[in-house]
Design a protein that fits this description.
Helices cover 45% and strands 11% of the residues. It is elongated, with a radius of gyration of 22 Å. The protein has one helix and two strands, in the order ββα. It has 55 residues and is mostly helical.
Length: 55
């Protein structure tokens, strides 16, 4: 019976692999939060306009 290969990865920061070396990615959590909040806000605004106009 064949055995499945198991790959274990360490729970470290995401890495960007370049030609020279692996560099840890520096992502800001606040920029991700702002993008999600902006997208949600636009969706809520469009929904509110649709409800007011009776669409």
């Amino acid at each position: 019976m064949p055995k499945a290969a198991r790959f274990f990865s360490s729970p470290s920061s995401p890495r960007i692999f370049t030609e020279r070396s692996a560099v840890p990615a520096k992502r800001s959590d606040t920029s991700e939060f702002v993008a999600i909040a902006l997208f949600s806000g636009i969706g809520l605004f469009v929904s509110l306009v649709a409800v007011i106009l009776g669409i």
